[in-house]
Amino acid sequence: MxxxxxxxxxxxxxxxxxxxxxxxxxxxxxxxxxxxxxxxIKQPQDEGNNVxxxxxxxxxxxxxxxxRINTTDVLYRIPYVINGLYDSEELDIIWKAMRSIEQxxxxxxEERKSEEDFLELQNKIHHGCYTxxxxxxxxxxxxxxxxxxxxxxxRDIVIHELMHTIGLWHEHMRNDRDKYIRIRYExxxxxxxxxFDMVPEAESNTxxxxxxxxxxxxxxxxxxxxxxxxxxxxxxxxxYQDVIGKARDxxxxxxxxxxxxxxxNRCMGKPFKNVESMKQTSSFATTKLxxxxxxxxxxxTSNDQTFRSSDPDR
Length: 314
Known about the structure:
This protein is an alpha/beta fold. It has a single domain (30-297), classed as 3-Layer(aba) Sandwich (Collagenase (Catalytic Domain)). Helix content is 25%, strand content 12%. A 5-stranded mixed beta sheet has the order 3-2-4-6-5, covered by helices on one side. The chain has a two-stranded parallel ribbon with strand order 1-7. Strands 8-9 form a two-stranded antiparallel sheet. The longest helix is centred in the first third of the chain and has 22 residues, at 4-25. Residues 14-23, 44-55 and 277-314 have low confidence and may be disordered. Zn(2+) binds at residues 160, 164, 170. Residues 1-25 form the signal peptide. Its cofactor is Zn(2+). This is Metalloendopeptidase. The active site is at residue 161.
């Protein structure tokens, strides 16, 4: 028999279910990759002495590039699987980030069939946002945490991590960075100073691009500060102090470096041939990554249009 008390219990149950649904559906707070424990690059330890890289992007002859598709066009495939639990909105952000890279470069993301080397997107609580740089053997994990507390699923973060997987490093590590920024080491937490190591010229390949404050690969001004509010990356031109780390999409120079690295024949919708990449490839033999730089990117212990404008912000 129905009673008022049963009515109240039913109302309470519906209220509880609604609250639970709202809580679970809530987007978590954005994870700032420039301040998360260990940074956002995770290079596997087992590559040992076989790691040969060109920075701030892989060389066009690097063995860590992804495989070319056997077609008449210059296209490269990144097989992927999504093993993390994401809702439809989060999946849409991930797929749109992939499509944007595909539309502007010769990279193609395809669902994995039986490829031995592949990208695996995972979602684990307390793991943050990270991936490796370039293709490694076997499973290449990209961690994109997403829950009602914290999330990596923002367009710029997903593009940033995908571009690491393709082969780009951080903009502030370029060998010419001292012309554009000053690293305030006194404000950096000591354990994270290696996150700001500058890549020597002999180990660099910027493919002729200018330093770009608006690169989606640039850290923000307070990255890894030892205390809240301290600036760790000071732009020499103060106009750009509040620009770095704020990009919400890839810059043309980010796409340009990928096109040059993979020797695409089209880039950002136009025919493409990068003369600078050929010059740099011939003048910079593939160089073994120094021990210092290897340490700077090894964070496995911390987490289970042609573009030559003189305007540095383009």
